[in-house]
Design goal:
The protein has 401 residues and is of the alpha/beta class. Helix content is 48%, strand content 13%. Helix 1 packs across helix 2 (59-70) and helix 13 (314-326) packs across helix 16 (368-379).
Length: 401
């Protein structure tokens, strides 16, 4: 494993971090046995940065249990995030931190982030609640060691927040699909200039840059691999593009299988700043252009919008919608039918009543209601609805209980 230094604390952080939002699950929640296996493998191979959050359902509890079972607390840097959007009063902030510590079965959190800041007014609200004084208290008491923030918003708001406090880390979304999205490369460089370590989230855009690329894009990668005599996977191309740059400190990956951990560790153990050639960077530029032609809704599948009060599977709808452009309309229709319609309660886009709850908390600022209307138009033609009705009647799913 290769490491990059946090210049503020002096900590050497593995350049591959373990994101714990997508730990493997069973019918009963997070699968502790399987999660422990892949986390043990990660630690044994040098990964020392583990990222979770209060809002990741079951993640803090699972990670705390596993860390305790493996007795590795002193070998890793542990992060979590303050769910300030859930707070109704200032006192809630303290309660959330204490609950995270309890769930994680630890006395301290190495890097604690204010979760999901989207604009400067959000920071101003927290300041009015006394967040600066609370941070000082948490540090003095030893509950946290470094403070940071995760950001989803415009570059202009990001810069205001970055300059408003002596931050010690930030988490930003960044990948080759659009280097100017949200804070973007300008935001990363601004943090680097101030000596603030940057953690990258969504390097694969929720896995889509690894598993949902159009055939034309895959052809470009295969051609480049052949010319160079290598066998770099789409995921490796995406990670290498990030590690090629000097600004990121840690790249998070939401690993949920042994094979994924092994592949990413192999990449992280050889990837260095400046490793890509001009030809390889040109290949990524071509793939970016192809991707952006076919990508219609910038959903990462994070699930913040869920559950929908009407039962719409919002990420599933958008995944099928995007697939209908990148992999063909019939493929998208089939995916939509399988993932939203063959359930006890259909989770289709037409169930949306435009309540707007989802749009208020979407990190990507997607116009969800408008986009679901587009999904309905493309993926719910009359023949599809008839097929769904007949299928549900045949399988008995429409029978009254």
């Amino acid at each position: 494993m290769l490491y990059r230094k946090d210049e503020i604390t002096g900590n050497s952080l593995s350049q591959l971090g373990f994101g714990c939002m997508r730990l493997p699950r069973s019918a009963f929640g997070i699968d502790i046995k399987e999660s422990e296996e892949i986390i043990r493998l990660a630690i044994d191979n040098g990964i020392n940065f583990f990222d979770t959050a209060y809002m990741y359902k079951g993640s803090e509890e699972a990670l705390g249990t596993i860390i305790n079972n493996l007795r590795v607390r002193d070998k890793i840097y542990l992060t979590s995030k303050l769910p300030w959007l859930m707070a109704k009063k200032s006192e809630d902030l303290e309660n959330y931190l204490n609950e995270s510590l309890s769930r994680l079965k630890t006395d301290y959190i190495d890097y604690y982030f204010i979760h999901l800041l989207t604009d400067y007014s959000a920071w101003e609200k927290l300041v009015s609640w006394g967040i600066i004084e609370r941070i000082d208290e948490w540090k003095k008491s030893g509950k946290i060691r470094s403070i940071g923030f995760s950001f989803h918003g415009s570059y202009s708001d990001y810069i205001k927040i970055l300059n408003a406090y002596d931050w010690e880390m930030c988490i930003l979304q960044y990948n080759y699909s659009d280097e100017n999205f949200q804070a973007g490369i300008r935001g990363i460089r601004a943090a680097k200039k101030r000596g603030i370590p940057v953690v990258i989230m969504e390097p694969l855009l929720g896995g889509r840059l690894a598993n949902a690329l159009p055939e034309k894009a895959l052809h470009e990668f295969r051609h480049a691999n052949t010319l160079a005599g290598i066998n770099r996977t789409p995921a490796e191309w995406a990670f290498d593009w990030l590690w090629n740059q000097p600004e990121p400190t840690v790249i998070l990956s939401g690993m949920n299988s042994v094979s994924m951990v092994k592949e990413n560790i192999t990449s992280a153990s050889r990837a260095k700043e400046g490793m890509l050639t001009e030809s390889e960077l040109s290949t990524i530029q071509k793939v970016r252009e192809i991707w952006n032609e076919s990508n219609k809704v910038n959903c990462t599948g994070c699930g913040y919008c869920m559950p929908c009060p009407m039962g719409v599977n919002i990420p599933g709808c958008f995944a099928s919608y995007n697939a209908s452009f990148s992999q063909g309309r019939m493929y998208g229709l089939r995916s939509y039918f399988m993932s939203t319609s063959l359930l006890n309660n259909p989770q289709i886009a037409s169930k949306c009543v435009r309540c707007g709850k989802c749009e208020k908390i979407c990190p990507q600022k997607i116009p969800i209601m408008e986009s679901l209307a587009d999904v309905k138009k493309r993926l719910e033609p009359a023949p599809f609805m008839l097929m769904m009705m007949l299928s549900r009647k045949f399988t008995g799913k429409d029978k009254k209980k």
